[in-house]
Write a structure and sequence with these properties.
about 425 residues, mainly alpha, 19 helices, globular
């Protein structure tokens, strides 16, 4: 097969990936040089580590906001009190950070960075088994590392998004292999942050993945029952209480919640409309209109992997709480979109490539300008979601777990380059 001539000889997907990874590494080194020994101490990981310590020492105070604040200051006296993030994850999350909290802070932080890297890049490796037309794994890994929401907002800050990334990929791969109950069981890994399931669960119903839903429900019930071996019933009551408190305060513009970097639709309109009644009406109307488009797209995608990509992307927008670090999930939606085009024997559309590039470069552009990219990302996500809604869908008669013919790296790279020209 004769490949099209690249009219941008200076452009190479591999070269761009190398540059992006190099910039990401330089970004980390620059932050380390600028902050010195306070690098780990200023990470969001402090909140999780402090919650683990609090649970080990005074488990009844796990969701006491004042006790959390005191513990954070005890762990890191120089930690700015107005930047404190409360621990609002489900109580079983302390099963991870309780043991880590027995270690010195720096060792616990480094171990968590290692776990995060394994989950993220392991998830990418697993994703490639479900996107067999994408064979340039090295470029994917380099681009994924250079993505600021990963190497800074997730890895350096010690966030939990890599957990969601890995288990979403695992659920998709099991779905493609026809192991639907296990796919639903994998989704239990998203219970650490309930908003991530806001669109995935309805998608399971509308696309007829009822066995997947059964697997999730069974796994969720099992997790809750197991959690009672080290938790008390009041922990769940306290969790509901602090979640309500967090929902009421997350859109307050101060240094506690950096909502300028959030990408969900509620926060987007909170920046634009001051009147709460008008804001609620506009947000609800917009969300309803977009939800209708998503439902139509789900029905069109059916049992294909595209339904997952649609749920992931729109789930970042049609939500109540999505900080920028959760946008690493785009490295699931993007490859699935590319795979859908290549599987259909079509060139990846120029618009799709442009929007993926915008989503990738947005944080890099905002960084030297000292602006928060949240609102830009929200608009770009809406546009990207619309592209996914109309992407090629695999044949209904094709088994979901079939492996299509592989396409060589050079030809695959050429598809993307041709789309840019």
């Amino acid at each position: 097969m004769q490949t099209a001539k690249n009219s941008l000889p200076f452009f190479s997907l591999k070269r761009f990936a190398i540059y992006a990874a190099a910039l990401g590494f330089a970004h980390l080194i620059g932050l380390a040089a600028a902050t010195g020994s306070t690098l780990a101490s200023n990470a969001d990981f402090t909140a999780f580590y402090s919650a683990g310590r609090l649970f080990n020492e005074s488990p009844d105070l796990l969701y006491d906001v004042a006790a959390q604040q005191r513990e954070v200051i005890h762990v890191e006296p120089k930690f700015p009190t107005n930047a404190y993030l409360p621990f609002v994850n489900p109580p079983f999350v302390v099963a991870i950070f309780g043991p880590l909290a027995h270690l010195p802070y720096l060792w616990a932080y480094l171990i968590w960075c290692l776990i995060t890297s394994i989950l993220y890049f392991g998830g990418l490796r697993l994703l490639l088994t479900a996107t067999p037309h994408i064979t340039d794994a090295k470029s994917l890994y380099l681009l994924a590392f250079g993505f600021i929401p990963f190497h800074f907002n997730t890895l350096l800050n010690g966030q939990l998004s890599a957990i969601g990334f890995f288990f979403v990929v695992l659920a998709i791969v099991l779905d493609r292999r026809g192991k639907l109950l296990l796919s639903g069981l994998a989704l239990v890994g998203l219970l650490y942050k309930l908003p991530l399931l806001l669109l995935i669960l309805p998608m399971l119903v509308i696309t007829g993945r009822f066995r997947t839903l059964m697997g999730f429900i069974g796994g969720a019930m099992g997790l809750i029952l197991v959690s009672f071996t080290f938790l008390r019933p009041h922990h769940w009551v306290d969790y509901v209480r602090i979640t309500r408190w967090f929902a009421q305060n997350k859109t307050t513009y101060n240094d506690v919640f950096e909502t300028a970097s959030y990408v969900d639709i509620e926060t987007f309109f909170h920046r634009l409309i001051a009147n709460s009644n008008i804001r609620f009406f506009v947000t609800s109307l917009t969300a309803l209109a977009l939800a209708v488009l998503v439902i139509i797209a789900w029905r069109r995608a059916g049992k294909s992997a595209l339904a997952w990509a649609i749920s992931i992307t729109w789930g970042l927008v049609l939500n109540v709480y999505v900080p920028i670090h959760d946008t690493i999930l785009l490295f699931i939606a993007g490859p699935i979109l590319i795979e859908s085009y290549l599987r259909a024997g079509r060139r990846v559309s120029t618009t799709a490539v442009f929007l993926m590039a915008l989503l990738y470069l947005c944080s890099w552009i905002a960084l030297p300008l000292s602006i928060k990219p949240g609102w830009i990302l929200t608009l770009a996500l809406v546009a990207f979601g619309c592209i996914l809604n109309f992407a090629p869908v695999e044949s209904r008669s094709e088994p979901a777990h079939d492996t299509p013919p592989r396409v060589g790296n050079r030809e695959n790279d050429n598809h993307l380059q041709t789309a840019l020209t």
